[in-house]
Amino acid sequence: MKPSVILVGADKGGVGKTTIARAVLDYLNTNNVVTRGFDTEFPRGTLHRFHPDQTSVIDLTSTSDQMRVLDTLNTTQVKVTVIDVRAGGLSLALQALEDTGFLDAVHAGEFNFLIFHVLGSSIASLDEIDEIAPFVSDAHYFLVKNHVNDTTFFEWDPVTHGKYFEKVMTSGELTIPKLNEMSYEQVEIAGVPFSTFVADRTAEGAPAGQSFVLRGYVRTWLGRIAEEFDRVQLLGLVAPRDSKAAKAAKER
């Protein structure tokens, strides 16, 4: 299976990119796709807090850490890599991937590359699209609207759409629904993956005694996100063999 890299980021802070990265890891884990994660919020990452066994904290501007990620893509048995880019660092991360030759390798067909660009609520996010357009021509490039914190997004009129999208071809848009505030807060306090919270387990696997209602909200929310990932055929993009196995398992 060809190695796949999923980059989750934005050039604006506070848009909930780590929530998206956590949801991606939960989704892939639930579908039996073995995945590793890298958290570039160096030296102490939020993604690593929720997925410590699966995630390493790195400095993507460091050559040695770039080697930790890219030199191992073909040697590790884990073929799917999720990189959670630190707040405001998407352009810098893409520049680093270009400078190291990764984007050339993607163009040559050596790797699958997916970008989840998490948008802010203002039109300034469209400037980000324009800025990173030179880096995404060979990637599966998704625009993500994250409503988890009750964000309201602007609408793109035809003129605005034409101005900003003429230089970039997107693979689609993803909408992350709002999660009940109390449920979200309780998951933050628990410090576990969303799916672990739903299963009412602690990080050590012991019963957690969480609220049935709050777990229900998170379960429903994860289901809606899974529908979004299914709609854009995420499994087929990163792990086609695993996606067939998952489909067969569902049919059984």
UniProtKB/TrEMBL annotation:
InterPro entries: P-loop_NTPase. This is CobQ/CobB/MinD/ParA nucleotide binding domain-containing protein.
